[in-house]
Amino acid sequence: MRTVGILGGMGPMATADLFIKIIQNTPARSDQEHIPIIIYNNPQIPSRIDAILQHAESPRSELIRSAVFLEQAGADFIAMPCNTAHYWYNDIQQAINIPLINMIDLTVDYIADKYPHAAVSPIMLLATAATVKVGLYQQRFAARGMEILVPTAQEQQIISQAIDAVKAGTINENPYLDALRQFMTDYSQNGVIAFIAGCTEIPLLFAHIAGNFDKIDPTLLLAQEVVRRALSSEHA
C-alpha cells in the first residue's frame, strides 16, 4: 500500500472534503486497511486567483515547497485539491521525483468517456474566474472536440461569491445557493447536460443544489484515483 500526500489548504474545507472522499471510497473493513495519508494543509499559499487576475504574489514557490515537503515526508505520490493551482502543475511536477496527479486531466478523461455527446451537447464549467481566464478546462475540451460553456460575467460573480462564502465557512446557509440553483436549472433546460465543479469548494455546495441535471465532482474523481493508485500493485 502506497502513502498519499495531499497538498492542501486551498482551501481547508476542500482539503477535508478530499480526505473524507478518499476514506469513503476505500474498501476497508478495519483501521489497518485504510490508506496512509500525509496531509499538508498549508493555507499560507498565496492566492492563486489574485496571482492570475491581479498579478499579485505568485504561489509557485510555496506550491513547490509544499510538494517537496510531502515527498520528503514519505509520500509516494501527491494529490492537490485545487483546480486553479493546476496552472502551476508543470512547475510543481518538475520539482519533485514522485507523481502529482492531474485532477483536471482526470476530469476531462471521465467526461470524454461518460458523455460521448459532449461534442454537440455542452457541459458548463463552474470555477474561479482565474481558472476560466487561463482556460485550464477549455483547452483540454477543445483538444478533444468537446464543447464547454463558461459563465457570463454576472454568473461568474455569483460563483466567485459562493466560493468565497465556503472559504469563510458558510455551506448549508450559503447566500448564493438559490442563485446558483436557478441559473443551473435555466441552462439545463436549454441543453446543458452537466456541470463541472471546477473549483474544489463547489462540490461542498452540490449536495444543497437539487435539480434535474448531472453534477461532475473532480474532487470525487481525484479521491477515486488516489485509492486506485494507493492500492494498486503497479507503480503509481
Provide an overview of this structure.
Strand 1 (4-8), helix 1 and strand 2 form a beta-alpha-beta unit. It is built from 11 helices and 7 strands. The chain has 236 residues and is an alpha/beta fold. The longest helix has 15 residues, at 153-167. Strands 5-4-6-7 form a 4-stranded parallel sheet. It has a 3-stranded parallel sheet with strand order 2-1-3, with helices on both faces.
Brief summary of the model shown:
With 236 residues, the protein is an alpha/beta fold.
Give the total of domains. Answer: 2
How many individual β-strands?
7
Order of helices and strands: EHEHHEHHEHHEHHEHEH
Question: Architecture of the largest domain in CATH?
Answer: 3-Layer(aba) Sandwich
Structural class: alpha/beta
List the total number of helices. 11
What key phrases describe this protein's structure?
single chain; 236 residues; alpha/beta; Rossmann fold; 2 domains; four-stranded parallel β-sheet; three-stranded parallel β-sheet; 7 strands; 47% helix; 11% strand
